[in-house]
Amino acid sequence: MGLEQIQLRPGMYVGNTADGTGLDNMVAELVANAMAEAPPCDRIDVSLYDGDVVAVRDNGAGMPVETDPEWDVPLAELLVTQLGGAADFKVHPNRSEDLIGVGLPVVNALSEEFAVRIWRGSLEYAMRFYLGAFVHRLQCTGAAGNYKGLPRRGTEIAFIPSPRFFTSTTYDFARLEQRLRKFEFFQCGIAITLADKRGGQTREATFAA
């Protein structure tokens, strides 16, 4: 199933595209995807940057990069380009109770830019999209390196919501914080940090999911 249908009716997948709640649901989709890896994931960082850039980073195992035998493409590509592509991927049992959309492909389809970095098996991988279309496919970009003395692992997704689909693409920190705090009820042992780094200053909110 292609991403064009998402772009034709974005409200069906993320909710209201005019009042900001649809934007918040985009981030919630990425956070829920990261929570699906608990354990080993125990930390998720959500950062807001100038230029309407949002980045969600976790310290899980990293998206799977193995080739799917049926599609003959890396599983990570399927997860962000195919509706239902995550059907066989581990999903948090409570996530369907708190989300409107159907995962990563929705965020990809509604983003002006969508970039993925994966640290898995001591290697780093990357892929990039424009409005859901490949700019470059998944490729190994080198060694994963270390973080705080341990092999780096996890996934980072950075995106810019497209003004083609949203009345405003600027995030409201307080509203997004309220949206993400709903994950506290999941109680799966993950620390979530929301950091607003716009305008040369930083304010943060941290809570447990």
Automatic annotation (TrEMBL):
Keywords: ATP-binding, DNA-binding, Isomerase, Nucleotide-binding, Topoisomerase. It catalyses: ATP-dependent breakage, passage and rejoining of double-stranded DNA. It holds the Pfam family HATPase_c. SMART domains: HATPase_c. It comes from the Bacteria. InterPro entries: HATPase_C_sf, HATPase_dom. It is an enzyme of class 5 (isomerase). Residues 18-133 form the Histidine kinase/HSP90-like ATPase domain. Its EC number is 5.6.2.2. Belongs to the type II topoisomerase GyrB family. This is DNA topoisomerase (ATP-hydrolyzing). It comes from Rhizomicrobium electricum.
